[in-house]
Amino acid sequence: EYFQFPAGQSEIPKEFLERSRLNGFIDISVPNNLHVWFAKQAGDKNVIIEKPLSGSLEGVCEFERHISELRSNGSFNGRIMGDAEHYSYYGNVKEYMLNIDKYVNKEYENDRLGRIKKVELYILENEDFSSKRNQEIIEVEKSGGGIWLDTGIHTIAFLRNLGAKINYQRMYVQPYKANDSRIRDDKYGESGMHTGFCVSGKYFVDGCNVNIKVGKCSSKKEKVFIMHHENGRVELNIVEKSLKIFNRNNELIEPLQYFKEDAFYNVLKDFRDCVIRGEQPFTSIDMAIGNCKDNFSIRQKALPLIKLNNGRFFDEFCDEQYVEFEKALPKIS
Question: For the chain, what is the HEC assignment?
């Protein structure tokens, strides 16, 4: 059941809450800066919030305090709450995350695939900003930030679901803005972001390098997560919905796997199932809070915005800029 608020209304109507069924839930799909405001009005209802949890770090911290208060007074008991970070529900992504032990310890030719030594996470679109939707996702007043908050959140969620701990001591964070007249105004945030840092954790070698590119106005559409293990690599192609495993000689060592499920459908189906079982979802509210905190903390390390000239694609130009930083990162053999 959908309920559309009249323009300017900032309170959830009582009749809407009363119509919510016992085993139902409320999906909060308002602009980012209103997520927390409406979520706090949900009473004792189960709630799923569109990503990101908030358009500001202050909003995330406010909601974290709210959840803590609910737990302290017992009001959170029995409630299911999470966010709709849908990349975690692509079949190939979820398969890898939920079975990371299997992939790290996978044996072939008398050897293990091994821990992860390098990660490449690319979510690149060759779209411009002719559509209102694309403009609004980087309009700061409505979204709270640029492309990093809207799209980068998926890469952070992926890393944290693998147990990665981000090292903030040495970090490269370079925002870009495409030369598109429709987003030239300062009210729009970055259209592309390139970040690099190291992570640690059970499934990662010491000093594991992470290279992330997210953005629009790229030279090509590329949505792929690549995990370089000690003795091979795993590729998750988001567009193809495929999972590929290669050995160190770049040979495919298992039949190609495809996962046909729709990620958006999986988000809501899983949340509905969690409500019925009384379990917190894979993308729980605690995970959502942590994802946003890391996302904002990385954004705070950003270098000055680079505005691209005519004919320069974000993904091609940022590779040139990244070379010197990557040279200084720890070398993993």
Answer: CCCCCCCCCCCCCHHHHHHCCCCCCEEECCCHHHHHHHHCCCCCCCEEECCCCCCCHHHHHHHHHHHHHHHHCCCCCCCCEEECCHHHHCHHHHHHHHCHHHHHCCEECCEECCCEEEEEEEEECCCCCCCHHHHHHCEHHHHCCCHHHHHHHHHHHHHHHCCCEEEEEEEEEEEEECCCHHHCCCCECCCEEEEEEEEECCCEEEEEEEEEEEECCCCCCEEEEEEEECCEEEEEECCCCEEEEEECCCCECCCCEECCCCHHHHHHHHHHHHHHHCCCCCCEHHHHHHHHHHHHHHHCCCCCCEECCCCCCHHHHHHHHHHHHHHHCCCCC
Q: Which residue has the higher pLDDT, 186 or 6?
A: 186
Average pLDDT over residues 251-262: 90
Q: What is the pLDDT of residues 58-104, one digit of tens each?
A: 999 999 999 999 999 998 988 999 999 999 999 999 999 999 999 99
Query: Looking at the whole model, is its pTM more than 0.70?
Result: yes
Extract the tokens encoding 262: 């729709």
Residue 259 structure tokens: 């996962």
Greatest extent of the chain over all pairs of C-alpha atoms, in Å: 64
The pLDDT, as a whole number, for residue 333 is 47
Enter the tokens of residue 292.
Answer: 């946003």
User: Each residue of 296-327: pLDDT tens digit?
Assistant: 999 999 999 999 887 668 787 777 777 766 66
